[in-house]
From TrEMBL:
Record GO cellular component, one term: membrane
GO molecular function, one term: 4 iron, 4 sulfur cluster binding
Keyword Metal-binding: yes
Keywords, in A-Z order: 4Fe-4S, Iron, Iron-sulfur, Metal-binding
Biological processes annotated in GO: respiratory electron transport chain
UniProt name for this protein: Putative anaerobic dehydrogenase
PANTHER family per record: NADH-QUINONE OXIDOREDUCTASE SUBUNIT G, RESPIRATORY NITRATE REDUCTASE
Amino acid sequence: TAPQQPSPTATATHCPYCALQCAMTISKDAEVKPRQFPTNAGGLCQKGWTSAALLDSPARLTTPLVRRAGELRPACWSEALDLVASRLGQLVAEHGPDSVAVFGGGGLTNEKSYLLGKFARVALGTSQIDYNGRFCMSSAAAAGNRAFGVDRGLPFPLTDLAEADAVVLVGANPAETMPPFVQHLRGASTKGGLVVVDPRRTPTAERANLHLAPAPGTDLALALGILHAVVADGLLRESVVAERTTGFDAAWRIAAAYWPERVERITGVSAADQRRVASLLAGARNAYVLTARGAEQHATGADTVSAWINLALALGLPGRPGSGYGCLTGQGNGQGGREHGQKADQLPGYRMITDPAARQHVAAVWGVRPDSLPGPGRSAYELLDALGTDSGPRALLVFGSNVVVSAPHSAHIADRLSTLDFLVTADLVLSETSALADVVFPVTQWAEEDGTMTNLEGRILLRRKAVDPPPGVRTDLEVISDLAARLGQPQDRFPADAETVFEELRAASAGGRADYAGVSYDRLRAGEALYWPVPSESHPGTPRMFLDGFAHPDGKARFVPVDHTGPAERPDPEFPLYAITGRVLPHYQSGAQTRLVDELNSIVSQCHVEVHPDVAARSGLRDGDLALVTSRRGEVAARVRCVDSMRPDVIFLPFHFPAEQRANLLTNPVLDPVSRMPEFKVCAARLTPKDGE
Ligand code: SF4
């Protein structure tokens, strides 16, 4: 591990974007260079290389904005803070604390995630807080908690993958979303053991030894078919299943009805390929099953991930050295962001808010009475959907999220935002969401502030201030602290210094599932590789979990019986295609940051729709034409990109673009009943030429 020691000329830090959190240095004059670190091994993708361009973007906000006479106009900090505190205080007094809601983000540092959750529950007293991670990782989190008793994206260091003989990647496209990750797949691919499950032939699928392209929304059935093959072909690890798990019989009763030939009819994946994957995983000394958004973002996302975990358990992979199951987290702090109290149902330390012991512990750290803490609130989409309704919140504070682009059925969400009495955002630039706000606070970003992030392995990383922010901006922590003081909170209850907040976070997380009690800035500055749980300062951290037992009280993992039901919307004569959404290499999430970087935007600057050439021709379209993609919720204008490898029943759109190019105008907000994650990945759509083109 490269020590993260200060250098006279450059500061060791990590990329502002995805969960790989590639290591880099940044000089005082904002020059970025890659840095040796186990996860990126000296690599950066084009987003990382160009990340310094965000710092001096001409689009940066440097003064608060307050809406007057319908227009956002510059204001001084005290005026903006006073206005927000007074409007929120008034709403709470008149309509109760749940009239104010808070929406956070999976890119916020651990400290911001923690202080935002505390601000909502203590300074505002509202139960109405959730965050955009609900859209990204919540199905894997729910499935991991069900199976193992705890959810850490990868319960092993990424470098363990180097020794893998077989890796099955389900709904993951790291060759575009986190390219330096791909080097960790080299071991499996050179041994012929890299399998990619994706309806699309993505750049990752191009590298695979075997690409399975199931019909959208049928990944669960595919996992059942492979599990069936494992059992039928005598590959079940019976002794491991008996000793280390419970619930196999109930899971098998369902999988027994999904023999590979039947699954071939459901998914389109041949029975032979299903058996090939079963035998590949069973025959490998070191084997991994890894899932990502493609498995998760469904109305049955939690069950789909459970089906793949069941397969891994049947083969004895989780808890076996050199093997396992993991989820590839997406957002920069997708892991830490879900551990410290931004979620509607959780308190810091990954504690459930309904657990009396958890409430007691956290209330003691916060210096409040346990019964003063609100209960669980609405999940992200439900919260946004309720805005401005009779029973819903009348004001919303948004930190680190651009929901107008990233939420499903996004025209409806923009409508809901417009009905609010009061919308407040903290933002780097005037994102599509901030453009609707009544007050916008201009805030610092990654290299301009201190903070910690927890990467996709559960390793806690220090991002240190390397450059001065533009005059006029403040940190999110300062904004939260200033607002709390104006709402009558003692100043020392809401500190604005990142390390001081982290010290409190340690105490709040102590004894919880995600235990940071032994992590300190000093240990991180010294370059220690700390993977949670780290229960004490003398504890070395936990790079590999589950070797001695799972986190359920009996130490055993759980099979979860799950059945295939398919997507909520299927093609029909009116909408004959499956539309699926995803990412492209130059852009990150809603594109609010990457669309500002000329070098990235010049590579991809507008939405396109990938389609099989025969389907395009049948629709009266050719490569490069402007098409209209229509679903039951809206329509998107996109340039046609003909791709021979596309399934003829599928079209694909990236979701990073604004206005009429928002792919989320199409997406279906039906929610997974367990994780409350929307079904971003599949809806029914049609493709027509755009009028006049
Ligand atoms: Fe690495 Fe992700 Fe940043 Fe690319 S976006 S440099 S993969 S952390």
